[in-house]
Amino acid sequence: MTQQELINMAIYAGLFLALFGIAELLYHYAKVYVEITRKTVHIGTGLITLSFPIFLTTHWSVLILTVSFVAILGISKKFDLLKSINGISRSSRGSILYPIIIYLTYWIFTIFDDVLFFYLPILILAICDPIAALTGKKWPIGKYKIFKETKTLMGSSCFFVSCVILTTSFVIPLRDNWIEIVCVTFFISFITTLVEAVSQKGWDNLFIPLSVTASLLLSQYLFHF
Known about the structure:
By secondary structure, this protein is mostly helical. It has two domains: about 110 residues, no CATH class; about 110 residues, no CATH class. The chain is built from ten helices and two strands, in the order H-H-H-H-H-H-H-E-E-H-H-H. It has a two-stranded antiparallel sheet with strand order 1-2. Helix 6 packs parallel to helix 10, helix 7 crosses helix 10 and helix 9 packs antiparallel against helix 10. The chain is globular. About 35% of the residues are buried.
């Protein structure tokens, strides 16, 4: 591991810690609702992570970073720290699963040597998932219950629409056949929306990116993508 790689890792660690610090300030001093601070960290983490393929050259660097933050988040949960992330009444493993899926998607990207396998899963998780959660809470239209969690048609619809927009923006540069573009986009968006709807207790942080990856692979066989 080169000196520059170590420097880049240290910079990323500082960025993530700064993000946690901002969320804590918002929660404790600006009295921002915990669901907002959680989503702020959720989105911010995803956006910072998007530069991993540019500045980190090996998946071992990402593994070290993610293991470190899994440890930090695990300790904070055990000792009731980081209220801006952990101060929710419901049971959720989402904060722990987030760094784990970041590593897994990066590792998958290195296997296929295709940044689409990293950028699309992370962006859908970082953008579409918070959109679904926040719109569903703001406008709880069409409530439905799966297992023990209540979700809304509004939230699921917003997830699907935002997923279609994101996926289309990635697929259009790769194909000039609009039938293929529409098929791949709606296939990925439909599968991912279903996975988000049935995921419980924060497991959507793991299953959403994995479902995007699986959908991309299936699209190669179904639509010759």
